[in-house]
Structures are given as C-alpha cells and as structure tokens.
Amino acid sequence: MKIAVGAVLFAVGFGFAIARGAVPSSTTADGAESRDLHEHMMGFLDQLKTIAQHLQAGKTEECLEAATRMQELALSAKHLDPANLEEVPEEQRADHRRSFRIAMVQLLSELSLLEIELLEGKRDEAWARVSGSLFQLRESSHERFQSAD
Ligand code: HEM
User: Fold this and answer.
1) Which of 33, 41, 102, 147 to mutate to test ligand 1, by most ligand atoms within 8 A of the CB atom?
2) Taking each helix axis from N to C terminus, what angle separates 123-131 and 93-119, rounded to the nearest 10 degrees?
3) Residue 81 · residue 37 · CB < 8 Å
4) Which atom of ligand 1 is nearest to the CA of 106?
5) How far apart are CA 63 and CA 49, in angstroms?
6) 11/130 Cα distance (integer angstroms)
7) Taking the domains of the chain in order of start, what are their residue ranges?
8) Alpha-carbon distance 44 to 50, whole Å?
9) What's the pTM?
10) Is 97 within 8 Å of 120 (Cβ atoms)?
C-alpha cells in the first residue's frame, strides 16, 4: 500500500489550516444554531484527523469508528442552517437551505462509501477518497456556505 506519510500529514495539516481560519460562529438571531454548526464542524475535523493518523498504520477499527461518528454528525448537521443564510436575499433562502442539505447528504454519501472501503480493507481507495472527493466537497461547501465576515 502506498500511502505517503507526507499525504497523511497534509490531511492533518489541511484540517488545522481551516481550524486556524477566522470563521464567525454566529449568524442567527441568538447565534444558537450557528454555534451548533460550528461544534459539528469541529467534530468533523477531530474525526478526520483520527482517520488521517490511523489509516496508514492499518488501524481500521479506529478509522471505522471515526467515519461512523462523522456520519452521525452529518445526519444531525443536515437539519441546521448554513452560516451565511442571512447574507442571501430572502427569496433565495429556501433554495440555499436546500443546497446546504444536499451538500451535507453528499458528505454522508462519501462517508458511507468510505466505510465500505474500510470494511473491505481497501485502504488505498479510502485514502484516495479522503484526500480527493471528500476534501473537494469540503472546500466547495465552505466556499458556498461559510459567512463572508
Ligand atoms: C469532512 C468535512 C468537513 C470538515 C472537516 C469541516 C471542518 C470545518 C471547520 C474546521 C470549520 C471552521 C470552524 C471555525 O474555525 O470556525 C468549518 C466551518 C464551516 N463548515 Fe465545514 N467541514 C466539513 C464539511 C462541510 C460541509 C459538507 C459543509 C456544508 C454542507 C460545511 C459547512 C461549513 C460552514 C457553513 C462553516 C461555518 C460554520 C461556522 O459558522 O462556524 N462543512 N468546517
């Protein structure tokens, strides 16, 4: 299996890079939903770091547990509002909410495929997903749904 150490470190690194970014955590009237989304995101990041650290070492059980936890977070996060909802014209908000939910379900679907790859011992494929399509989904979602502030 050719999972480069550099690639694993890259994965952990990109997580920290986002964590360091100044992202506002309050967009709703009382800020509650947005804080909640922030907590979900920090959960995604923690679990993704666990996967990046354990995949190469063949610690599949730890990766499976982390992937499952991420699925649970995605199931819950799809019901939340995107952080930039109030920056969108009122007549477009229902569509924006729907798009956010679709992106979260796409994440759920990536995580389900990741789980299958882990269960089948396909670590190369699992890594290709984490550093490829899952990473891209995260990047594009952040562009679309993070607040501009
Ligand atoms: C594995 C995938 C993902 C990871 C590891 C991740 C991680 C993070 C992190 C670390 C933050 C920054 C929190 C902060 O510093 O304030 C963040 C913010 C955010 N992410 Fe994600 N994310 C992922 C996927 C997604 C997806 C799929 C969506 C949308 C469907 C999304 C929407 C957002 C939004 C709206 C924010 C801003 C939330 C706030 O106000 O704090 N993320 N994410």
Assistant:
1) 41
2) 160
3) yes
4) 27
5) 10
6) 8
7) 5-145
8) 10
9) 0.85
10) no
User: Does the structural domain 5-145 have CATH classification 3.30.450.20?
Assistant: no
- Cα angle at 147 between 17 and 108, to 5 degrees? 70
Ligand 1 binding site (Cβ under 6 Å of any ligand atom):
15, 18-19, 21, 23-25, 34, 37-38, 41-42, 44-45, 48, 82-83, 100, 103-104, 107, 134, 137-138, 141-142, 145-147
Q: Which single residue is written with the structure tokens 């930039």?
A: 84
Instruction: Give the pair of three-digit tokens for residue 121.
Output: 């011992």
Q: What is the pLDDT of residues 81-112, one digit of tens each?
A: 999 999 999 999 999 999 999 999 999 999 99
Ranges of the chain with pLDDT below 50? 1-3, 5-6, 8-10, 12-27
Sign of torsion over alpha carbons 22, 25, 28, 33: positive
Residue keyed to tokens 């494929």? 125
The two tokens of residue 46 are 């923690």
- Helix and strand numbers (H, E) in the chain are 6, 0
The encoded tokens of residue 10 equal 């890259």
